[in-house]
Amino acid sequence: MARLGRPLVLLLAGIYFLVPLLASTVFTVNIPGQGVTLSSYTRIFTAPGFTGSLLLSLGLAAATVALVLLITVPAAVAARLSAPRLRPVLEVVCTLPLVVPPVALTAGLGTVLRWGPEKLSTTPLYQTFVAVQNPDFPLVLVLAYAVMALPFVYRALDAGLRSVDVRTLVEAARDCGASWPRALVSAVLPNLRGTLLNASFLTLALVLGEFTVASLLGFRPFAVWMVQASGSDARLSVAVSLLSLLLTWVLLLALTTVGNRRRTPRSSRTFEVPAASQGKTSR
Amino acid sequence: MTVLDQPVRTGAALSIRGLRRSFGSAVALDGLDLDVAPGELLALLGPSGCGKTTALRVLGGFEKPDEGQVLLDGEDIVPVAAERRDTAMVFQSYSLFPHLTAADNVAFGLRMRKVRTAERRARAAELLELVGLAGHGDRFPHQLSGGQQQRVALARALALRPRLLLLDEPLSALDARVRLTLREEIRRLQLELGITTVFVTHDQEEALSMADRVAVMNGGRLEQCASPTELYERPATDFVAEFIGTMNRIPGRADGDGTVDVLGVRLPVEGPAGSGPVTALVRPEALEIEAADGGTGRIVATAFHGPTTRVRVALADGTDVKADVPTHAAAALTPGTAVTVRPRQRPVVLAAAGGAR
Q: Do A190 and B156 touch (CB under 8 A)?
């Protein structure tokens, strides 16, 4: 039973994941009356709004990654170093967005955005409210996405920090003459590379696929464009979602590869390098 | 031109004055005063929680004292941030930067001081050679053994030519044999460079074998600071007597003429003697045991220690004493044997009045 169990589970899981993908692929390439053709895919790049929405999504993703890391990394490190009692608080705060549905978040955001121009029209803040809703680059989405990404980023970061002795690294760096910020940048962050990549990737995936908030606030990043395109051209929209899945996989693969390179020496010309997994060598 | 040829700034005099530090209600340092001579290796020894690590962290700048001064060549460094101090610390373990090679670890401080790359490399190589790791510069910490990692950490600490070297139990995570070699090596380097060093340890053997002087701490205070021999032979307090080596506490009677009667033998007293009932402190090697029918003691247990065997004897008055006997003479001393116990003729130290520690 045990010997049969694993292949069986793999098979079932494979069917579960692959059948929809195959069906989608067949749907996009097999057009009744025309036979097998890649026209759905070639049309993507010329479809109106494709490039703009994709670039917008990538830009939003980059900004969100930057913002969320800028907020969480110093906070998590500081909590670990000097206020361990705040860690549970941080954890709860960062997990909270997970239990707030995006619709509720958007409703709240919408209320504030409507309220702002009404009450603040005579103050300089009014301009800010307009600026964050600039449809070319809606900063308000970055803010919302940063909140939504918090649970994932914080989890990844917390796990990563647990595997590194941050205190000793910072102290050793300061002992060598590095100021606080330099100690963080030169001694701690390089050892969190895998963690940071992981967190960035989760954020990227979240932003690329986010629909609810953007749609309800009336912006048109990639996911929203996809849905709108599917109304007029179903094949095109399925082709796009398959492509975006592929893109995500490629990114994931790239990040994993980069993350795995981190423990290999830069040069191994002068001596034999023991396998990385071997850990400590004998004396 | 090696690192050693260059004028090394060594021999800073360290003075610690009235250092106090508490964490909430726990007092880690309760008015610590210490002086370390230029080029001296001082060991801070004590049970865990005695404040020795806090003291070292204050010296390194990682902990601010509530009160007190740390004078390095007469200048108070308490207000100076850790990264600006002329001190260097070797941490307990795992303090190397995992993402950097051994050479880059050693050169880290030089990089922070914006030393040029070529010079950095050259100096890192010299320092690695100094700690016996020539040719290991390309390795990453996880490719080095624990002992090698601590050597790299030592090289990194020496890279900026500190005036004060701080060692925070650098050997405690290593296995016994590596610990012994590295112990000697650290001492050799320290003497060679003439660098003032403070070494924190809970291992008395380590402290006694390496240090010029040992400062025994307890409850955030200094109990005694003296040379290893002095500590062993003339413990100033009961705590030191109990903490360093093994000490028998044997009831005796002071005669008021500077001698004391211990187990029927009249011994000269070291220090103030007084008169009346006292507790004499006697080392196991200062006791003689002889198998004798009708002896007042009975052997409880023996333990083989190589050249000597430690014999535990219960005396008739209920006192339990330990004596070290040459192993060749211990064959006849089996548990249950009746023996006589006598102190050898040498000066004896009395426990402070009250007896208890």
A: no
**Residue-number span of the structural domain to which B214 is assigned:** 14-240
CA dihedral A30, A34, A35, A41 (to 10 degrees): -40
Measured between beta carbons, the chain A residues lying within 8 angstroms of B98 are 164, 191, 263
Looking at the 3D structure of chain B, how many domains does it have? 2
CATH number of the domain encompassing residue B256: 2.40.50.100
With 0-12 / 13-18 / 19 or more C-beta atoms within 10 angstroms meaning exposed / middle / buried, residue B107 is buried
Domains of chain A: 35-259 (1.10.3720.10)
Indicate if B263 and B235 belong to the same structural domain. Answer: no
State whether B204 and B254 are in the same domain: no
Do B98 and B83 lie in one domain? The reply is: yes
Q: Which of A196-205, A209-218, A274-283, B191-200 has the highest mean pLDDT?
A: B191-200
Determine, yes or no, domain membership for B356: no
Closest approach of chain B CAs to the CA of A177, in angstroms? 4
Chain B contact set for A165 (CB, 8 A): 94-95
In 3D space, the residue among B222, B161, B152, B216 whose CA is nearest the CA of residue B11 turns out to be B161
Q: ipTM score of the complex?
A: 0.82
- Look at A283 and B97 and tell me if their CB atoms are within 8 Å: no
Q: Enter the DSSP assignment of B20.
A: E
Q: Are residues B76 and B54 in the same domain?
A: yes
- Asked whether residue A265 carries a pLDDT value surpassing 70, the answer given is no
User: For residue A281, which residues of chain B lie inside 8 Å, CB to CB?
Assistant: 143-145
Contact A191 B143 (CB under 8 A): no
Same domain, B106 and B31: yes
- Pick the closest to residue B202 from B1, B32, B44 (CA basis): B44
Residue A51 pLDDT > 70: yes
Range A165-174 average pLDDT: 92
Whole-angstrom Cα distance, residue A262 to residue A256? 10
CA-based R_g, chain A, Å: 24
Does residue B43 form part of some domain?
yes
Whether the Cβ atoms of residue B44 and residue B200 lie closer than 8 Å to each other: yes
> Would you say residue B78 lies in a domain?
yes
Are residues B158 and B193 both part of a single domain? yes
Task: List, as ranges, residues 105-134 from B with C-beta within 8 Å of A.
Answer: 108-109, 111-113
In this predicted model, what pLDDT tens digit does every residue of B321-353 receive, in sequence order? Answer: 999 999 988 888 889 889 999 998 888 888 865
Residue B198's pLDDT band (boundaries 50, 70, 90)?
very high
Across the interface, which of A171, A190, A262 has its CB nearest the CB of B62?
A171
Q: How many CB pairs under 8 A join A and B?
A: 102
| pLDDT digit string, tens, across residues B294-308 | 888 899 999 998 899
Which residue, among B147, B85, B103, has the nearest Cα to A176 in the 3D structure? B85
Q: Is B87 within 8 Å of chain A by CB?
A: yes
d(CA B354, CA B357): 8
A281 touches chain B (CB under 8 A): yes
Residue-wise pLDDT for B86-135, tens only, equals 999 999 877 999 999 999 999 999 999 999 999 999 999 999 999 999 99
> How open is the CA angle B207-B54-B19, to the nearest 5 degrees?
100
